[in-house]
Design brief:
single chain; 6 strands; two-stranded antiparallel sheet; mainly alpha; 357 residues
């Protein structure tokens, strides 16, 4: 009994070791193509038998195939040079190489962020920032942890710390400093929100007129600026509160709303769109955008007119400078010519023959 039990244990250990070795080693007829930068493995081997829809072992075979391919991809990751993060006390990390497969983007490239008023002025005057951009996290000495610089749970923003406020010498002794601090905070938030909406309205298509602080704007200008500021938010003004007597902005003034078709179910519509796309790509005749062509022609005409006007003004300026550079000047020349004409027209002068009576 003892001998058989020892043999059984040895056999189980050998089976366990063989199972472990088999789980690490994977044999393929065709080598897989790897793109480690994208964590991608392409298996060009034919699918094993039994993966059809009618086979009962289909799920198990597909799971085993996915497991073998994943094992090969993990082996490629372990072959990369690795190091320990956090000065040797952290986990083992490896730097992925540059991806070799170009994947299409689902969304278009993000547009550059519009410049604020100060950034435009600094770029115009050539002002360079003298300090680096501050991070969003700062060290809180009281809490002994990294916290946000602004917003909820910011560093030094615990209300329980401000249980005592110093009264300035210039303030009234009975003035509530806590209420004053809350009022200053509300004014600061409102001022920042106003500046943010003004920057968004300036960057909006078509631009927004500047609001004069002295009150020289009319009602229509105020309404247009308010409408542009409203639709310049991330929700296109959907969740912005309305003023007491503000009229509703029509959908045509807010712009065209994008509509997305269903992902599944509309096969006829998808087929129609794909056929139209193939037909437009295969046609030799390019589609003509009449509005764009007219605008282009108008811009070219305006540019030619401005160029001709500038050349004409330049010629007039050159003629005037030539006349000023002459010794007699324009007035002297004119007066000399008039004198000669008068001398020639007088009877008895040397320039013409007169009749004697």
């Amino acid at each position: 009994m003892a001998v058989s039990s020892v043999e059984d244990l040895l056999a189980r250990a050998e089976e366990r070791e063989a199972e472990t070795q088999r789980s690490v080693t994977v044999h393929k007829e065709l080598e897989l193509e790897f793109d480690v930068g994208n964590l991608l493995a392409v298996d060009k081997n034919p699918a094993p038998r039994g993966t059809g829809a009618a086979c009962s072992q289909r799920e198990a075979l597909l799971r085993a195939l996915a497991r073998d391919n994943t094992q090969l991809l993990v082996g490629q990751l372990w072959a990369l040079p690795s190091e320990r993060a956090e000065a040797g006390a952290g986990p083992v990390v490896a730097r992925l190489p540059d991806p070799s497969t170009r994947l299409p983007r689902e969304k278009p490239l993000p547009k550059p962020k519009p410049l604020t008023r100060w950034e435009q002025f600094a770029r115009l005057k050539g002002i360079r920032p003298t300090r680096k951009k501050r991070g969003t996290l700062v060290w809180d000495e009281a809490a002994k942890e990294w916290r946000r610089r602004w917003g909820y749970q910011r560093a030094g923003g615990d209300p329980s710390r401000d249980w005592l406020l110093e009264v300035p010498d210039s303030a009234h002794p009975l003035e509530d400093q806590f209420a004053k601090k809350r009022q200053e905070k509300r004014e600061k938030v409102a001022r920042n929100e106003y500046n943010r909406l003004r920057n968004l309205a300036r960057a909006h298509r078509g631009g927004a007129a500047e609001l004069h602080p002295t009150g020289h704007q009319d009602r229509s200008e105020l309404g247009r600026v308010t409408a542009l500021a409203r639709v310049s938010t991330a929700s296109v003004g959907r969740f912005q509160p309305r003023l007491p007597k503000e009229s509703r902005t029509p959908q045509s003034a807010r712009g065209k709303k994008r509509r997305f078709g269903p992902v599944l179910g509309d096969l006829d519509g998808e087929k129609k769109r794909q056929l139209e796309l193939v037909r437009s790509l295969g046609s030799k005749k390019t589609p003509l955008d009449l509005t764009r062509a007219v605008n282009k022609q108008l811009r070219e005409d305006e540019a030619e007119a401005a160029k001709a006007k500038g050349k004409k003004q330049g010629q007039r300026g050159k003629r005037g400078r030539r006349q000023q550079q002459r010794p007699g000047g324009a007035k002297g020349k004119k007066s000399g010519g008039a004198a000669r004409r008068g001398k020639a027209g007088r009877p008895g002068s040397g320039g013409g023959k007169g009749k004697r009576k």
